[in-house]
Amino acid sequence: KMAPYISAKHYISAKHKGIHITNLTRTARFLSEACDLVFYAASRGKQFLIVGTQKNKAADLVAWAAIKARCHFVNKKWLGGMLTNWSITETKLHKFRDLRIEQRAGRLNRLPKRDAAVVKRQLSRLQRYLGGVKYMTGLPDIVIILDQHEEYKALRECITLGIPTICLIDTNCDPDLADFSIPANDDGRSSIRLILNKLVFA
């Protein structure tokens, strides 16, 4: 692990063979506070977005948690400007929804083969990158980020727009960038699964 940020040292309980160990007491405390926030916001109809695009770590867990919680998610790739250029994203989402309607109605099969192939590739790409936000009609109220380093672009967009964030903070992350930090191992599937499970059923 990299050397921790000064502010992250409060979340470290020990160091073993060069690896910093997270203070689980603090993890439990901050996770509980995050769950309280999620429960409060959800009870008032706030919209959530979960971001985790690491294929081997969290992509499938992100989709599972979001579907359970009926919220939006990005688990393939963060498209730059997804939030800060919302008008462009909204246009893509309208296009995506229109193409899905055309597909369900069987109209794509009536197109010439070459045109149909182009449209199907476009639809496949939109499904891959925007499938988790296809029902999003505006900016999210809260964004849950599972890896500060990997999802830094998403985090910066949230900071720019003033959207509150809940971030998993490993020992090499900067907790000051997040509104609500949960000190935890963001490399382990079991750790990510546990925290998502707690947040989903908050």
Unreliable stretches (pLDDT < 50, length at least 5) are: 1-8
Specify the CATH architecture of the largest domain.
3-Layer(aba) Sandwich
Instruction: Describe the global form.
Output: elongated
| Helical residue percent band | 40-55%
How large is the count of helical segments?
6
Q: What name does the CATH topology of the largest domain carry?
A: Rossmann fold
How would you sum up this structure, described in words?
The chain has two domains: 20-83 and 139-185, Glucose-6-phosphate isomerase like protein, domain 1 (Rossmann fold, 3-Layer(aba) Sandwich); 86-131, Helix Hairpins. The protein is built from six helices and seven strands, in the order E-E-H-E-H-E-H-H-E-H-E-E-H. The strands form two sheets. The chain has a five-stranded parallel sheet, sandwiched between helices. It has a two-stranded antiparallel sheet with strand order 1-2. The protein is elongated and about 60 Å long. Helix 1 packs parallel to helix 6 (189-200), helix 2 (59-69) runs parallel beside helix 6 (189-200) and helix 3 (86-104) crosses helix 4. 45% of the residues lie in helices and 14% in strands. The protein starts with 11 loop residues before the first strand and ends with a helix. It has 202 residues and is an alpha/beta fold. It comes from Buchnera hispida. Belongs to the universal ribosomal protein uS2 family. One of its GO terms (biological process) is translation. Keywords: Ribonucleoprotein, Ribosomal protein.
